[in-house]
Amino acid sequence: xxxxxxxxxxxxxxxxxxxxxxxxxxxxxxxxxxxxxxxxxxxxxxxxxxxxxxxxxxxxxxxxxxxxxxxxxxxxxxxxxxxxxxxxxxxxxxxxxxxxxxxxxxxxxxxxxxxxxxxxxxxxxxxxxxxxxxxxxxxxxxxxxxxxxxxxxxxxxxxxxxxxxxxxxxxxxxxxxxxxxxxxxxxxxxxxxxxxxxxxxxxxxxxxxxxxxxxxxxxxxxxxxxxxxxxxxxxxxxxxxxxxxxxxxxxxxxxxxxxxxxxxxxxxxxxxxxxxxxxxxxxxxxxxxxxxxxxxxxxxxxxxxxxxxxxxxxxxxxxxxxxxxxxxxxxxxxxxxxx
Length: 339
Description:
Blueprint: E1 2-8, E2 11-16, E3 27-37, H1 39-45, E4 61-69, E5 81-84, E6 87-88, H2 94-97, E7 108-109, E8 121-125, E9 129-131, H3 138-142, H4 144-153, E10 163-167, H5 171-182, E11 187-192, H6 195-203, E12 208-211, H7 217-225, E13 232-235, H8 240-249, E14 255-258, H9 270-275, E15 279-282, H10 288-299, E16 309-314, H11 318-328, E17 334-338
Parallel strand pairs: 10-11, 10-13, 11-12, 13-14, 14-15, 16-17
Antiparallel strand pairs: 1-2, 3-4, 3-8, 3-17, 4-5, 5-9, 6-7
Helix pairs in contact: 4-5, 4-10
């Protein structure tokens, strides 16, 4: 079968390798259909991901078709269209024992610290698989992983009736904003310096957009929310200025969720954190129920995936996909590899 392996930053090799061996009782053999490239993958491509050794087989957000099942698998059947969580957890540490396995002390993520799905066939355990709804495409299926990030992040705090600001209108920020609306937020405003990304946000049905190159954060907040201000914020840009603005302008006693990935550790303004008595949460990936929620909401049309899909590349042009992202990054949302 075909396999793509990143042997060093910026260099992908294609190989023919043996197909996976016999399945254990609860394993599932997947035929990979689509693979999404995310910002963390791009960091790996440029050698800037601190927790990824080389060589590495990438691919952690994907859709697939069930090719075979172990004898005790009951969750899926051959031919089902599925996706699966890429988390490998120990099941024994404190976080795992209390059900917070997404923050496992020994977490490995396929595509980073463990081999990913950039090959024709891939084996997963039954407990990590989620069946796609009948009306979902393989493209939408490959977007369940980032959608689950949005589902998990917006589950940290009660959003119903609150005004919300999301910093960063990339794929993750967009999905966080959509989930905030779906979970009953009063008003949702998404901010970015890219007019292209903000236009995509509008196409996805996000209520308010703020272009920070033409309007300051302070003025945009005042214009959109008026005297109500905002009570919850999500930092999805991974930018110091975004974190600073959210902490300064969120209502005192407000809540912030940080899920952006920072190339350098940001400085946290302790004055605002303490004097304004803010509640700040980190958000790490997702759990199984977040995957299931993502599938349900995409299938029901509550989360709009299609405007996020920028371009597809055939498997043999995997490296060209990265070149495209580098070249067209400010006009790109989600790039998919078509198997």
